[in-house]
Design goal:
Order of helices and strands: HEEHHHHH
Radius of gyration: 17 Å
Distance between the termini: 45 Å
Number of strands: 2
Structural class: mainly alpha
């Protein structure tokens, strides 16, 4: 799949704050690229940044509401490889380099193990709430453009 013109990914809203029809078509293109083999797939919205897994319709809604994560014109979290990666060895190195998410791989592991549903009931016990807070901190960067999360910063203190 060519990723030459994916400018639509970052033109979600029109000036009158309605969703751009090109964006809607592009989201359909993205979901078609991802395919239907998996029930849950990584969500590439700004909020999830590939760290959470949802069903296709939930991802569609997230993208409509939040837009795509920054600089995601090559859909590498979803199996797309750039044309500049000419050999299988280079492609394997790219996929293993940790470039699949800016979020700590530990967070990916937790969500893969226990799943995540934003519509689930509130967490009732204190330990679970503390874990949830740590997971949220692991996703929040200290400031925009920084690659250090609040959680990692607190570990270093």
């Amino acid at each position: 799949m060519s990723n030459e013109d994916r400018s639509w990914m970052y033109q979600r809203l029109l000036s009158n704050t309605t969703i751009n029809p090109k964006f809607v078509d592009g989201v359909d293109e993205f979901l078609n690229f991802v395919g239907t083999n998996e029930e849950y797939i990584r969500c590439p919205c700004i909020r999830c940044a590939g760290a959470r897994y949802y069903k296709r319709n939930d991802i569609r809604l997230h993208l409509y509401r939040f837009g795509f994560q920054r600089d995601y014109v090559v859909w590498h979290q979803h199996g797309e490889i750039t044309e500049s990666l000419s050999t299988d060895m280079e492609a394997d190195a790219f996929m293993e380099s940790g470039s699949s998410s800016h979020v700590d791989p530990m967070v990916d592991m937790v969500f893969e193990t226990v799943g995540h549903n934003e519509h689930s009931p509130e967490i009732s016990n204190t330990e679970a709430q503390n874990l949830y807070k740590l997971l949220q901190e692991a996703e929040q960067f200290i400031w925009n453009g920084c690659e250090v999360t609040i959680y990692c910063f607190n570990l270093v203190k």
